[in-house]
Design brief:
It is a single chain. The protein is of the alpha+beta class. The chain has two domains: about 100 residues; about 220 residues, no CATH class. Helices cover about 25% and strands about 20% of the residues. The strands form four sheets. The chain has a six-stranded mixed beta sheet with strand order 13-15-14-16-17-18, sandwiched between helices. Strand 3 and strand 4 form a beta hairpin. Helix 10 crosses helix 11. The chain is globular. It starts with a helix and ends in a 6-residue tail after the last strand.
Length: about 350
């Protein structure tokens, strides 16, 4: 299978164009989904719809809808071709399926002889990030979370200790009357829309391996609002490539003992887990709605034990499947454990599985 490695390294959006999918101008999504057939991805609380069901991130794609995991179809360019050509996932032992997909990537597919040739879409502009210097200046104006009655009250309503959060620097409060060009939601200042709980967002430091640096902010509304209006980001930025951390300098301690890190999704769960932070759960690293699963899986060192903090509902089951897939695809060996949230007793722990890199066939 000389074509297989080339296909796995191919940009998904390139394969999507060659397979005849309608590709977004920015090269970040396409539709309709080859699994469920849906064409649109709705955004609750927004004034428009995303017109392409599947999101494409370099060599990975996934079907999304309403901020959830959609129908579950996802994978590499090989998986996309299998769904389009066969109408099903490609599995080991499916000789006919591998033959059809291989023929397509070798360029001698009869079924798709009219498909446009492989082409790389024009490079999209990187999503802007909040200027770190401006953020550093404004940080001096932020208040401790326990010094603001509205923010502290919101945290207390979720059984979160505002003083402990402030002491650990996990979140801050936007000062009343604060105004900045970047701190606006739907053309209104965050102070007016109620987005006053601020969580620092970090990205891997390109200059220091294993460490992180401040790269943005996540603002949580502390007033009654519609579900789609709960979160805000500085103008022109978003959650892509950013994580929440309890230990910014080095989340993975190289000291003796079992090497553990806990991963979760959502700001509220992150804060609650960070306050728990017992030694047997290690540092806590969080993402927003699964935006950094692949990034997190690739960052955690080989051989570490990863605790998945999950809710005991359908959403938690979807998250579990997505996390397992992310760690299985990262090419490293990790031990995964599951915690059912909010029951985080030691006795609730259950070994999920031990994942090793897939054998190349």
């Amino acid at each position: 299978m000389d074509w297989l490695q080339t296909a796995r390294n191919m940009l998904v959006i390139t394969a999507a164009a060659a397979l005849g999918f309608q590709v977004a101008p920015d090269g970040l999504s396409f539709g309709a989904c080859p699994s469920c057939g849906e064409e649109f991805r709705n955004n609750p609380g927004r004034s428009h719809d995303r017109r392409y069901r599947c999101a494409a991130r370099e060599r990975f794609w996934a079907c999304y809808s309403n901020g959830t995991d959609g129908c579950g179809a996802r994978g590499s360019a090989v998986d996309l071709a299998a769904w389009k050509l066969l109408g099903r996932p490609l599995v080991a032992g499916d000789v006919d399926g591998w033959r059809v997909v291989g023929a397509f990537f070798r360029g001698d597919s009869v079924a798709f002889v009219q498909a446009p040739p492989f082409r790389t879409p024009p490079p999209s502009k990187p999503r802007p990030r909040l200027d770190r210097m401006a953020l550093a200046r404004d940080f001096f104006d932020f208040r401790r979370a326990d010094e603001d009655a509205e923010v502290a009250g919101w945290l207390a309503s979720r059984t979160l200790d505002a003083t402990a959060i402030a002491d650990q620097g996990l979140a801050f409060a936007l000062p009343p009357g604060f105004r900045a060009e970047w701190a606006r939601y739907r053309r209104e200042d965050w102070d007016r829309t109620g987005h006053r709980l601020l969580l620092p967002a970090y990205e891997p430091d390109p200059d220091v391996a294993g460490q992180f640096r401040l790269a943005g902010l996540h603002a949580r509304c502390v007033r009654p609002c519609e579900p789609g209006d709960k979160a805000a980001w500085p103008s022109g930025t978003g959650a892509s490539g950013l994580v929440m951390l309890t230990d910014v300098v080095r989340p993975w301690d190289d000291g003796a003992g079992e090497r553990l890190v806990t991963v979760c999704e959502g700001a509220t769960d992150f804060l609650a887990l960070a306050l728990e932070a017992p030694a047997h759960r290690g540092a806590v690293i969080g993402s927003w709605s699964g935006s950094a699963r692949e990034l997190i899986a690739g960052l955690i060192p080989e051989g570490w034990t990863v605790v998945l903090a999950l809710h005991g509902d359908d959403g938690g089951a979807n998250q579990e499947r997505a996390w397992v897939r992310a760690f299985a695809d990262c090419g490293k060996h990790h031990h995964l454990r599951r915690y059912v949230w909010p029951t985080l007793d030691r006795e609730a722990e259950a070994d999920l599985q031990s994942l090793r890199p897939k054998e190349e066939g």
